[in-house]
Design a protein that fits this description.
The chain has about 270 residues and is an alpha/beta fold. The chain has ten helices and seven strands.
Length: about 270
């Protein structure tokens, strides 16, 4: 279904975004690649068949309408948008400056909303399209050390669910994908309480799903028309399911993690917990 389509991927310079770009290119899609690191985007583009690089800073919300115009005019359409760009967090709420919340909400929630709002009327007028939100298990579960990240990712789910409800009859297919641990730099690039970059990874992330495997599963779910995919295993998958089936039990499990020293261990061993 992706052959000869045009897909726009944000956060395409590495990780899940780069893997999705390679997978879509292999299926015959043209790609608009966005991110901040132009050199990294060019490297991804070299592995793909037909690309347009549209770099942008996610927090520059005022630039997004113009970028959307440029991307749309390239092929005269955008068949699919993947809202993938984001940044995570590793800090207790009690210690975290408000500036961290402002940045996480701007990058992980307001930017994808702004981009979707810029494209949605065009997609509707063109007769349809696909919008993919890369949320997280933290978009369903309030995970310790990720209060800002969870807030943004919960919001991402709610926004895209509403867009789906409003526009499904107009040919707009919305897919919310919630990965668990995937082998990316998400933990290294996470913000600490003062807004500085963490710089180290997590054992869970390092042992997570390879990005190419995650991308294949995502495209399979999109092709199958699934509105939602929890792309996780083990405790992460169980936690997302428990949020719906027995939320009180989940809340206690999350609190127990903290009482058992989860936050202290994450800080003390260089993140390898």
């Amino acid at each position: 279904m992706f052959e000869n389509q045009c897909w726009w991927i944000t956060g395409a310079s590495s990780g899940i975004g780069a893997a999705l770009a390679r997978a879509l290119a292999a299926r015959g899609a043209s790609l608009v690649l966005s991110g901040r690191n132009v050199a990294a985007l060019e490297t991804v583009a070299e592995a793909c068949r037909d690309t347009l690089i549209v770099p942008f800073e996610a927090t520059d919300l005022g630039a997004i309408p113009g970028l959307a115009e440029r991307a749309w005019q390239w092929q005269g359409r955008i068949d699919g948008l993947v809202n993938n760009a984001g940044i995570s967090q590793r800090s207790l709420a009690v210690d975290t400056t408000f500036a961290v919340y402002e940045k996480l909400i701007a990058v992980d929630l307001l930017a994808p909303i702004a981009l979707t709002q810029a494209l949605l009327p065009r997609m509707v007028q063109a007769g349809g399209g696909r919008i993919v939100a890369i949320s997280s298990v933290a978009g369903f579960v309030g995970v310790p050390l990720r209060s800002a990240y969870s807030a943004a990712k919960h919001g991402l789910v709610g926004y895209h669910d509403a867009v789906r409800a409003e526009n499904a009859h107009l040919g707009i297919h919305v897919h919310v994908i919630a990965p668990g641990s995937v082998q990316t730099d998400v933990a290294k690039n996470a913000l600490l309480a003062d807004g500085s970059r963490r710089g180290v990874s997590d054992t869970a992330i390092d042992g997570g799903m390879p990005p190419d495997e995650a991308a294949a599963a995502m495209l399979a779910a999109i092709e199958a028309g699934k509105p939602e995919l929890i792309l996780a295993a083990g405790f992460e998958h169980d936690a997302a399911m428990l949020r719906r089936k027995d939320p009180e039990s989940l809340f206690e499990q999350m609190s127990a993690l903290v009482r058992a020293g989860y936050a202290t261990k994450m800080a003390a061993d260089g993140g390898k917990s």
